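Entry under discussion copied across for reference:
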Amino acid sequence: MCASVKQENPSLRILVADDFAEWRVRIHSILQPNPQLQVIGEACNGLQAVQKAAELLPDIVLLDIGMPVLNGIEAAIQIREVSPDTRVIFVTQENDSDLRTAALAAGAEQYLVKANAAKELLPAVEAALGNGHYSPNVCA
């Protein structure tokens, strides 16, 4: 079951949306060294991600593509509607240029492959906040 995690006075509010619980834990461990990055909630499927984004209005949603109920691309489109100021970063196992193009067209700021998240997630978050596009070599 997904649970919300609330912190006092966070500098940057992050919602983590992934159907794989172990991956959500991994995201926490990557973000934890930076106290300004606060996970304020989690979602287990795309529909829940949209609902939590509308409720929590996070600064960033870290979103998987392959999720139940509503896929990540459709969720991203709806998240941009319910929370226009929220930045979306896809963190997915899908290393596919067509999916990357669709994800960015859906309004995502970034597209990262999970295998590279340990080294690329923090720079991607910083780039998304600065309106810059972090461009790792995803489909080399």
